[in-house]
Specification:
heterodimer, A: about 170 residues, mainly alpha, Rna Polymerase Sigma Factor, Chain: A, Arc Repressor Mutant, subunit A, 2 domains, B: about 300 residues, alpha+beta, Jelly Rolls, Phage tail protein beta-alpha-beta fold, 3 domains, 14-stranded mixed beta sheet, 3-stranded mixed beta sheet, 8 helices, elongated
């Protein structure tokens, strides 16, 4: 889809997109955020043809809101780190990179075994969805199981993986 | 359900590549500011899962190769065992990676002999590639695919205004609401339709192939035949169904499916074969002689189907 085509879709659905941004907590800044969204889309135009341009814009808006949330969270964390570091040794937060690599590998192993502990089918469905990006409907078809089975397995697996992620982040 | 549970469901649903329910998602968030908060926290953690997961799933273990390796190590598998394996494997084989190789604007999707791969297209259509297959997609035209070599089952989401086209060996196939299998090898194109219909060369021949019809194009000859719709793309569950295909085509099919190199000698190459083959291991290929009515020799290069 040409850039101008996307722009037309954005203009046509301005109200809906603004409402979406506001629901995300964008509130009074919604107009500015929509502007930022458009700058982003223009700076990184889609590399593949888009079947659903409006869905593409919603997706981009969602990503933008998540990025904003992430940077707000990081800023808050920096502030609290700053006050913490005033009473500890300076420069301790930079771990050697090999150690970080080791931690990453350990995390990968732990995640694998936690996932496998959920059962082979659940682990496979999760990998297919999260790593290969296959739709639930297609996974159900491939494995010859119902979509509700796929849904409940995904719920369990995502819950376990997100909880694990949070445990890692707390350390 | 708690807000947290609901938020998790949205996180999962939004990960689906074809998610479109944005209005409903927005309405849910708008109901209570705590919902957006819960969603954000979960979605961020979910994004960060990438750091502790492999970048892609383990490479697909193709049944024939796995079994061949096992045989090499002296462990024999019974046919019954293998059949179970074949069904599981046809599922496992579809659980391949969906990696697309971008080359010079065109997107090329390829499989190695013995490999099978399922590729989801942006419009919800799907291509399932048999082994030793090359398909090119046109990045400027998502409703167009070119089969350079091999075999593909197309499951096309029909759009009357924008029909899907397959270009193969200089011919055009136009979908009319469809699942169809296409093989192109050694200048021969074979089409089998299991659902809907396909139009062959809509601009010139305009031959309509309904479900249950097949088409075989060799040189300047095109012959329409019949096929049992349930038998179309039987390779997906480890069966190779031949309805008068030549021994050369059967050999090509065996090579594509198993990853073993199988050829037919000139003497038998044009002999037709009718029947169903169920196979996957090297042992199976050797055992095909009586069914195919040929001698099967092991050669340094692979397997040879020869006169008895």
């Amino acid at each position: 889809m040409a850039e101008s085509g996307l722009e037309a879709i954005l203009m046509q659905n301005r109200g809906a997109l603004l409402r979406f941004i506001a629901a995300h907590g964008g509130g009074e800044e919604a107009e500015d955020i929509l502007q930022e969204l458009w700058m982003r889309v223009r700076a990184n135009p889609p590399t593949k043809p888009i079947a659903q341009p409006l869905s593409y814009l919603y997706r981009a808006a969602n990503n933008l809101m998540l990025d904003r949330y992430r940077s707000a969270k990081q800023a808050a964390k920096r502030d609290s780190d700053w006050s913490d570091s005033a009473v500890t040794e300076p420069g301790r937060s930079d771990e050697p990179s090999t150690e970080r690599g080791l931690i990453a590998r350990e995390q990968l192993d732990i995640a694998q075994s936690e996932l496998d502990a959920l059962g082979e089918r659940t682990a496979q469905i999760f990998r297919r969805h999260r790593i290969d990006g296959v739709a639930q409907r297609d996974i159900a078809q491939e494995l010859g199981i119902s979509i509700s089975t796929v849904e409940s397995d995904l719920r369990r697996a995502y819950r376990a993986m997100i909880d694990l992620r949070r445990r890692f982040d707390e350390v | 359900m708690t807000t947290e549970d609901e938020a998790l469901d949205w996180v999962i649903r939004l990960r689906d590549p074809g998610f479109e329910d944005w209005e409903a998602f927005g309405a849910w968030m708008a109901g209570d500011p705590a919902r957006a908060e819960a969603y954000h926290a979960l979605a961020i953690a979910e994004e960060d899962l990438g750091e502790m997961l492999p970048a892609e799933t383990a490479p697909v273990v193709v049944p024939s190769i796995a079994d061949a390796a096992r045989l090499r190590h002296g462990r024999r598998t019974t046919r019954r065992l293998w059949l179970g394996g074949a069904l599981a494997a046809s599922v496992a084989a579809l659980v391949g990676s969906n990696m697309l190789d971008h080359r010079g604007g065109d997107i090329s999707v390829a499989t190695a002999p013995g490999e099978r791969r399922s590729v989801a297209l942006a419009d919800g259509s799907r291509m399932i590639l048999n082994g030793n297959t090359v398909v090119r997609l046109d990045s400027a035209d998502p409703r167009m695919a070119t089969l350079d070599r091999g075999e593909v089952l197309f499951e096309i989401r029909h759009d009357e205004k924008n029909p899907f086209r397959v270009s193969v060996g200089g011919d055009q196939l136009l979908d009319v609401g469809t699942a169809f299998n296409v093989v192109h090898e050694h200048g021969v194109t074979a089409v089998q339709v299991s659902e809907g219909a396909v139009m062959y060369n809509p601009d010139s021949d305009a031959v309509r192939l309904d479900a249950g019809k097949s088409l075989r194009v060799a040189g300047d000859q095109a012959v329409v035949g019949s096929v049992v719709p349930g038998d179309v793309a039987a390779w997906r569950d480890g069966r190779l169904i031949s309805d008068g295909q030549t021994m050369a085509e059967v050999a090509a099919h065996l090579s594509r499916y198993t990853g073993e190199r199988v050829s037919a000698t000139a003497e038998v190459a044009n002999r037709p074969f009718r029947g169903v083959l169920s196979l996957g291991t090297r042992e199976d290929i050797a055992a095909l002689g009586p069914i195919l009515g040929v001698a099967v020799h092991r050669t340094p290069k692979g397997w040879e189907l020869a006169a008895r």
